[in-house]
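A quick word before the example. In earlier lectures we treated sequence and structure as two separate objects. From today on, think of them as two lines of the same record. Here is Beta-ketoacyl-ACP reductase written that way.
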Amino acid sequence: MAEQSRVVLVTGGSKGIGRTIAESFRDAGYSVAATYRSGGVPDGVLGVVCDITDQGQVDQAFETIEAELGPVEIVVANAGVTKDTLLMRMSDEDWNTVIDTNLTGTFRVVRRASRAMMRARFGRVILISSVVGLLGSAGQINYASSKSALVGMARSLARELGSRNVTANVIAPGFIETDMTAVLDEATISDYTKRIPAGRLGSVDDVAQAALFLAGDHAGYISGAVLPVDGGLGMGH
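And the structure line, produced from the sequence above:
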């Protein structure tokens, strides 16, 4: 099968990095579906409303995608939330909300996708982590923990499913220009820019191109890898 005709699922495809990833796969000729909770998805992408913290909604989303496009062959697990606050102020709810979406929700999606991948003896699992997963970030213990855990998930998947021609990799974006960073004050952005060897913030396109690479046939022998897209911010971690 030509790689560009494969079926791709992007979770959290309504805005930011997820939306651009969905658009990039669409423009490259893939059949693309994207889950979202509100907003909507780009034209030419099959939008499926889904809260990945609910296994029933995840199963329903896959059934819809399978009926419309066929079995999912490439998963880009991008959906995530933040509940930032310092450790002493972090409530159980702050912790549970972030872990249940970013980590457990990703697990639910990947578990459901793995069925068809095993049968087809082909699959690409791409987990969107973060530079803070390995670098750490004050005020983000819940978020950093959830993103760090995705590395262990991908590497365990790579060992479990590798013989079936299924790869599992992690993209760790750094400071990327999105709606989330647009609200930060100039001093914070300037401070980060000084710490980034590339001397600039990244673009959502930088992350999308990395996902396209890992999904392609040329990346078939790359598995269990963490691909930083951070301008050098996390080097050594």
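Notice the following. The first helix runs from residue 16 to 27. We will return to this example when we discuss secondary structure assignment.
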